[in-house]
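Aim 2 progress update. The chain analyzed this quarter is reproduced below.
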Amino acid sequence: MKLTTILDSMRLTALRGMLVGFSVLLAACGGGGGAQFASGGIVGTGSVDVVSVGAISALGAGQVAVNRVRFATAGAAVRLDGQPATEAALKVGMVVTVQGRQLPDGTAAATSIDFRNEVQGVVNGVDNGARTFTLLGQQVRTDQLTVFAGGTFETLVNQYVEVSGFRAAAGDLLATRVEIRSSIPVGASLEITGPVGLLDPVGKTFVIATQVVDYSQIAGAFVPASLANGVVFHVRGTMLTAGGRLVANELEPVGATVSASDVAKVELEGLITEFTGLASFRVNGQLVDGRVATVTGGTVAMLGNGVKVEVEGPLMQGVLVASKIEIEQDSDVVLDGTVDAVDLTGAAVTVGGQRIAVTATTQFEDRSVAAIRNFNLASIRIGDRLSIVATQNTSGLVATRIVRLDPSATGTSGTEGKAEGIVTEFVSVASFKVAGSMVNASSATFEQGVAADLADGRRVEVEGVFSGSVLLATRVVFESSAPAGSASIEGTIANFVSLANFQVAGRTIDATGAQITGGTAADLANGRRVQAEGTLTGGILVASKVSIEDAPTAQALEVEGPITAFVSIANFKVAGQTVDASKAAFTNGTAADLADGRRVAAKGSVVAGVLQATTIEIKDAPEAAETSVKGTITNFVSVANFVVAGRTIDATGATFENGTAADLASGRQVEVEGTLVGAVLRAKKVQFE
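Predicted structure tokens:
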């Protein structure tokens, strides 16, 4: 049976998105170049002993790097969205499924490489503050590793895009690559993947997240029998009705059609969902048992829903038995400067006097005029302009992303960034460099020192926002010395989540095994001053001793952080503290705004271990500042209640351009500027487009 025949009849996909188990095809049969499969798994003349699912981090001549594994691609069957393609179609940031054979020298040879977009269509809204955008009912998040091709985040509105990434839940996607088309292709396909909900077999509709799908145009004989609530489907259509329904012309089940046989080595990257403990959670929908795994990049206590991880181990009877779980923490150092040295043997590059290590997972992209497709460490030359995103570990900085820019290129204004290292080229508080980044700290707050302490040779950590290539510092922390294997940190606790996760002087602390003096573990909370001693592991100080330096306070308590374990207004947690806000006064929002993930400050008194809040302040960072959204109006109720780009708008106090309040209606294109209060954008200006 030919592979094309199988695909036409079954429309089988490789492991992507919300799959259940590893669904794979192997182009292995001789003669016609096809493959056969049976319900028990893959069969054919070729063998599969390694599968890697994740974002492409680098490309080379005849090679592709995914999850630390560098695959030789000669002879591999490449498929994009179910169609045959060439290796040249593969791009950095694409989430792919690579199957292959392990070679004796530790490398691997790919036999198949499969890619499928998670969603593609026209962007109908962007939220500049949250750096998210919406299309086809999906909210797409971006981060420092998201690759934008053909444009930038700022150019997304009304553009046709193809998005690859990892799903945290239905309608919630973390983009790894966003392909922006300058014009909408003729007959452009609208596609979406996710679990089916609200299935109406009579009306022939269902929803994926908030996108309504109309499949009435598909003949009954071609509607998959597996169509049911909760089953993951890929939907393809070419039009939206006036009501915003996606008219489907193809429905394709994703996942459990065929299950792979046992695989000796699996590398899986994605976001954790359905976490109940180490024994049972999912990554990209794949069931994982992590009880015997070694956890790196953090601690076991940090694992939970939404955490980005890379999991390695064998696939046994449909379960990935993890031998290693690596927590992929957000990169917190951003460097922009020229190359001083390149060390191919030691796998490192030096920028602005700062040495940055390169690993097998470092993402490479060339945005200079050279535009080398197979850009990697060997392509970098002294004097090149690099933009680097990195993390700090015990041995120094480790690059997660390296982008080569033209020398005259400007940075991305408005992007949050950090730089840590030795001060160089000091001119004034408004002009100096840290790790190659130009810094202006004239408006910064200083910790463990004052502005007058700035000088060449001082080690600092800087946080702020880029304006072009200059980091406008909001916070400067003086450090006594470079992080080493052992460290001692003193300061005030912030961002307290649990004993295993809080910060002091900007450093994450895990005190689960620490000796605590001057109080008990129960005394640890935001605002308490402590000294922590221990060993730095993966950028985290694993404390052996924590000394509480201020006397235990009275029962009055203030906590700040994201809400977790929300049950009701009278029962939720902030920074690990149970809170009852049933009698609290609210600012910047109302009780209706309380939900998991919302950031709040709660003040009150502790009674029987529960903080009886007297005040609750909604303090979501992106929503405390001026912001703007663009897109199509939806869910219009009144001038005080409508939605743009997933954001609720109140325009009662706004000024209007190119129209009036009477012109507001669902379907109108607008740009809204204003201030976020709670979950509502209080518009100052509404411009019709």
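The chain has one helix and 59 strands. The first strand starts at residue 36 and ends at 38. These observations will guide the mutagenesis experiments scheduled for the next reporting period.
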